[in-house]
Amino acid sequence: QVQLVESGGGLVQAGGSLRLSCAASGRTFSSYAMGWFRQAAGKEREFVAAISWSGGNANYADSVKGRFTISRDNAKNTVYLRMYSLKPEDTAVYYCAADTWGSGSDLVYEYDYWGQGTQVTVSS
C-alpha cells in the first residue's frame, strides 16, 4: 500500500511559478516510479510528468516540456513538480501517482495509487 498527499497548489498569475510536493508513505518510496497528472474542469485526466525510482530518468508531456521539472528526494519520500512560466491553460487539479510496476508511464491506468489532488489556478 502507498499513501500519497499533495501540497503546494494555489492561485498564481500567468508567468508565475509554483512548486508542488507529494509526500509518500507505506511501501519503500525508492522502489517505484512516480508521476504527476492533471485534470481541468470538464476534461479527462492527462499526463504531466513522470520520474523513475532512482530519479535518473524523467519524461514530460509536450505541453509542459521546458517549463516544468519533476524531481524526487528518496530520503524524504517526496516527489516535486516545479512549474515555471505558468499559463491559464495549466489551471487544473494536479495529482501525484505511484507506478509500482513500471518505470514511470504516461498512461493513467498504469498507476496504482493516487493522491487526493491539489488545485492550481493560473489567472490571466
Written account of the structure:
The protein has 124 residues and is an all-beta fold. The chain is globular and about 40 Å long. The mean pLDDT is 96. The protein has strands spanning 2-7, 10-13, 18-26, 33-39, 46-51, 58-60, 68-73, 78-83, 92-99, 113-114, 118-123.
Summarize the structure.
With 124 residues, the protein is mainly beta. The protein has strands spanning 2-7, 10-13, 18-26, 33-39, 46-51, 58-60, 68-73, 78-83, 92-99, 113-114, 118-123.
How many distinct helices? Answer: 0
Instruction: Please mark out the parts with pLDDT under 50 across 5 or more consecutive residues, or reply none.
Output: none
How many E strands?
11
Distance between the ends: 40 Å
Strand portion: over 45%
Main sheet?
A: 7 strands, mixed
Taken from the alpha-carbon principal axes, the silhouette is: globular
Order of helices and strands: EEEEEEEEEEE
